[in-house]
Structures are given as C-alpha cells and as structure tokens.
C-alpha cells in the first residue's frame, strides 16, 4: 500500500523547507535546460487546438478542455511531468490566499517571483523564472498550438523546440480591474476562487452531464463546476501566460493543476462514491454528441491526445493510486 | 449564405471579421434541430493576416484557442484581447507604435 513514489504537499510547507524548495526549483530549471519542459507547453497548446465537435455545434470542447476529459487529461499530463521532473509537485491551495492574493508567500523572489512589470510589458523580472536570471525563455505557439519563432525556424520541423524559446514569462495580476473588456466579466475580476467555490464543486454530482462541454449545467456537472470557476478563475487572476494556450510556460500552472487534481481526489473519496468507481466517470460509450454519435476521445476507455497508446487511457488514471502519487 | 465583412484597426493592427449572417446572435434561433440540410459556416477572424479559428458558445460568447479560459461578447472584443495578451501580436503593437513615433 505504501509504494507511492511522490507525495504532493501544500506549497506553503515546501516554502518552509529551504532544501525542498531549492530542489523543486532546480528540478524545474533542469527540465527546462533539457528541452523537455517545452514539450509540455506545446502538448498543451496543440491539444487545445484540437477541436472535438460536430458541424454546427456551438462549443469550445477540445481534446483536453471543456469536456469530461478535462480532469483525466490533466492528471495524466501532471503524472508524466512529475516523472520527468523527478520530484513531487506541490499544490497551491489558492483559497488560503483569497484575502490578500498579492501577499501570498508563493510570489517570493526565491520562488515563483511576483507580478509582471507593467512598465516592461508585464514581464516577470525577479525570481528563478524571471527575466533577470535568463534561465526561463518561454515558448510561444500559434492558433493550432505549433511553436512560433522566426519563419525560417517554422519551415524546418527538425529544429529542436528549444530553438523557438525566446520570450519572457509574463503575469498581470488583477488586470481585469483596469481593463474594461476583461474576460467577458464586465470588467470585474472576481478574485481568486474561495473555499465556497470549492465546496460547491465538491457537493455537485454526477461527474459530468450532457452536452458534455462548456455549457454543461453547473448543478449537474462536477467537472464543469470545477473547470469553469475555480480552475479558470485562477488562470484569469494570474493573467499573462496563464491566460493563454501556452499557460504551462508559467511553472505556477503545475502547482495550480496539482490543486485541481487534489480536489478531484477529494470528490472521488466522498463517502457516497469512494468504493464505487463506476460513479467516477460515465460508462464507456455514453458520452455522445447531440446527434447521438460517440464523442471520440472523451469516453472512458479512450486514449488521450497527443500520447495515444504511449500514455494511459482515461479509465487507467481514474484511480490516482495507479499513478504512484498521493496528497499529504 | 450572406457574409458581412468588417475591418478595424486596433493599436495599429488590422482586424478583419467575416460573419456569416446565420451566425449572428440574433439568428441563433435557427441553429440546431435543422435536420439533414443544416450547415454552419460560422465567422472568420483574421488578425494582421493570420487566420484565427473562432468558437461560439451556447451563451453566444466567442472564444479562441489562444485565450482558452475566457470568452467574449463579440468577435471584436476577442480580437482585441488576443492582440493585448498573445506575445507575438502584442510585440507587433509595440513595433507599430515605434514606427509611428519615428
């Protein structure tokens, strides 16, 4: 039973342990230097650019988001990433920072660094991922998720991804307050998600419901309730790269998604379903388009884009113990 | 099918929006349940010559792969946010401002 390899801890605990903190940062920088980190950024953007819809369907559903696959896909993504990283991913429980998000210890100069500089294009300056250190060149992607650099590089598929990395990490906290067009919210940034937002998600069942997309009822879909506000709200609050298809450029992405995955584990462990894995995800073949045809890629026995059979299928990741990690 | 074409400049960057009349929010009642003959072209967005896929939600908001966590009340709003946020467009606005001030 105790063969878990990675123990995912609250990031606040990591910050109190100088050794653990610096090992985590070193692991991120090492993965960046090998070029493997950028593969994750591009995988995310390419999957984002893979629409899953039928003609005429008004939806944003893609091969990793705005559909039932959202949670399993990110679980597999983090699992692969954690194996490459070689150390456990901590989780950022943002509900602890609701009252004063700017003062969160995660923004310390020796950790995530803070906000971007409005006078310099919202580039993050301080910290191991800041432009000051020159250790964190970002990679950008186009609408389809393919890397963009200069056009010569684009013409040659044999050029390593690292040759495209020439940007700087950006963040713009609460820009919505200043930006009237922000996020379709009427210019009001609702701030970081609160405990009540998480509790509301945890109290929602079933896992998901038709039409299995960004219009699934919040009261009938745990997945939608979690994906929309708590998950999306953090991406929006942090801003900069976190708002884009290349959001994993910000290492914060992984700490945020570790927390999203932790909430899913908590939901699965609820007394009403912990011993009934059939409730964790709809049965294979039941996730269908409005015309009754199967939504390939989102059903229980389906493999996931872009890994296919080089990765787990949805069913295999539903029990996170199979992936050899646990939350403290 | 009737297409309307709208062109605007934002921070010196050209936005072209081609809208299928059927795709306008007020025409959304004609969507779905259309049977065999239903076809859907949707809207096309071009920013600085780059074609960008536009997605419409059932709430009549518009989204893009570029900004996957947010959706906007109009394609024009979506385009302006892409220009403000996505690095390779944002950098062009700066280059343009430099060009104008020279």
CATH superfamily of chain B: protein ne1242 domain like
- The appropriate CATH architecture of chain B is 2-Layer Sandwich
- Count the strands of chain A? 6
Distance between the termini of chain A: 15 Å
Shape of chain B: globular
Helix content of chain A: 25-40%
**CATH topology call of chain A:** di-copper center containing domain from catechol oxidase
Percentage beta strand of chain A? 5-15%
Encode the helix/strand succession of chain B as letters: EEEEEEEHH
Domains of chain B, number: 1
Q: Tell me about the biggest sheet of chain A?
A: 2 strands, parallel
Supply the helix-strand structural class of chain A.
mainly alpha
Q: Strand-and-helix sequence of chain A, N→C? A: EHHHHEEHHHHEEHE
Q: What is the beta-strand fraction of chain B?
A: 35-45%
Please describe the structure with a list of short key phrases separated by commas or semicolons:
heterodimer; A: 328 residues; mainly alpha; di-copper center containing domain from catechol oxidase; two-stranded parallel sheet; two-stranded antiparallel sheet; 9 helices; 6 strands; 5% strand; globular; B: 102 residues; alpha+beta; protein ne1242 fold; four-stranded antiparallel beta sheet; 7 strands; 35% strand; disordered C terminus
Helix-strand blueprint:
The complex is a heterodimer of chains A (328) and B (102).
Chain A: E1 6-8, H1 11-15, H2 18-34, H3 36-48, H4 70-85, E2 140-141, E3 147-148, H5 151-154, H6 195-202, H7 222-238, H8 252-268, E4 303-304, E5 308-313, H9 314-317, E6 325-327
Parallel strand pairs in A: 1-6
Antiparallel strand pairs in A: 2-3, 4-5
Helix pairs in contact in A: 4-8, 6-7, 7-8
Chain B: E1 3-10, E2 13-20, E3 43-47, E4 50-53, E5 55-56, E6 62-64, E7 67-72, H1 75-85, H2 87-101
Antiparallel strand pairs in B: 1-2, 2-3, 3-4, 5-6, 6-7
């Amino acid at each position: 039973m105790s063969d878990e390899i990675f123990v995912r801890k609250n990031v606040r605990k990591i910050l109190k342990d100088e050794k653990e903190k610096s090992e985590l940062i070193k692991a991120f920088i090492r993965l960046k230097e090998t070029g493997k980190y950028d593969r994750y950024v591009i995988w995310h953007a390419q999957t984002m650019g893979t629409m899953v819809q039928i003609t005429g369907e008004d939806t944003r559903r893609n091969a990793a988001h705005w559909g039932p696959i959202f949670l399993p896909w990110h679980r597999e993504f983090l699992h692969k990433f954690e194996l490459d990283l070689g150390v456990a991913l901590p989780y950022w429980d943002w509900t602890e920072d609701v009252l004063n998000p700017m003062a969160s210890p995660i923004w310390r100069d020796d950790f995530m660094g803070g906000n971007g500089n409005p006078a310099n294009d919202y580039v993050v300056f301080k910290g191991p991922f800041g432009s000051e250190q020159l250790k964190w060149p970002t990679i950008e992607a186009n609408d389809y998720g393919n890397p963009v650099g200069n056009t010569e590089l684009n013409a040659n598929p044999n050029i390593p991804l690292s040759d495209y990395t020439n940007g700087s990490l950006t963040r713009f906290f609460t820009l919505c307050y200043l930006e009237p067009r922000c996020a379709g919210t009427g210019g009001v940034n609702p701030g970081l998600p609160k405990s009540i937002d998480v509790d509301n998600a945890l109290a929602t069942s079933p896992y998901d419901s038709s039409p299995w997309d960004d219009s699934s009822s919040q009261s009938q879909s745990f997945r939608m309730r979690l994906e929309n506000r708590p998950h999306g709200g953090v991406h929006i609050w942090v801003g900069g790269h976190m708002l884009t298809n290349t959001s994993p450029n910000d290492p914060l992405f992984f700490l945020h998604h570790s927390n999203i995955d932790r909430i899913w584990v908590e939901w699965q462990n609820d007394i009403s379903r912990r011993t009934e894995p059939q409730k964790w995800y709809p049965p294979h073949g039941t996730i269908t388009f409005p015309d009754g045809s199967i939504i390939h890629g989102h059903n229980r026995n389906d493999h996931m884009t872009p890994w296919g059979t080089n990765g787990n299928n949805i069913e295999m990741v539903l029990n996170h113990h199979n992936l050899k990690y646990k939350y403290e | 099918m009737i297409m309307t074409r709208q062109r605007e400049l934002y921070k010196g960057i050209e936005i072209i929006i081609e809208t299928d009349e059927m795709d306008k929010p007020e025409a959304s009642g004609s969507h779905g349940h259309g049977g065999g003959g239903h076809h859907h072209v949707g809207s096309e967005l071009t920013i600085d010559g780059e074609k960008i896929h536009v997605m419409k939600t059932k709430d009549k908001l518009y989204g893009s792969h570029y900004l996957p966590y947010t959706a906007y009340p109009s394609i024009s709003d979506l385009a302006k946010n892409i220009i403000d946020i996505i690095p390779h467009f944002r950098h062009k606005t700066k280059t343009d401002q430099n060009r104008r001030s020279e």
